[in-house]
Amino acid sequence: MSRRRKAREIALQTLYAEEVSGADWRAAFHDNVERRKPSDEVVEYAMRLVVNVMDDKADLDRRIKERLENWALERVSVIDRTILRIALSELLHCPEVPTNVIMNEAIEIARRFSTADAGRFVNGLLDSLAREVRGS
Is the domain 3-134 a CATH 1.10.940.10 member? Predict the structure, then answer.
């Protein structure tokens, strides 16, 4: 598993815990890092992802809502919503990461942590968002 994949999974689990239980994201992040014992590079990238999502959550949600057709953001599963937030945040704030890498990672994580159809759902929304954000 790549270092960035590990970082994305730590970010996902941290943000999921924050969303579902209202846990302080810092405590959830610390617990994930303690459990996984990742490298400093993984911790740094995961922290970057979590902070960016937390700082921009309202804007990320607004952008995602604009792409949902006949569907409310609140009806999207917490795990899928969190995956979309992380990937969109990466598209916006991590220009060094290629668009196709961000999208492929989000799809794979959705397949691993969500339902069988989540990969297609995430792919469809991210494709539209990536074109808007990066013009690709």
Answer: yes
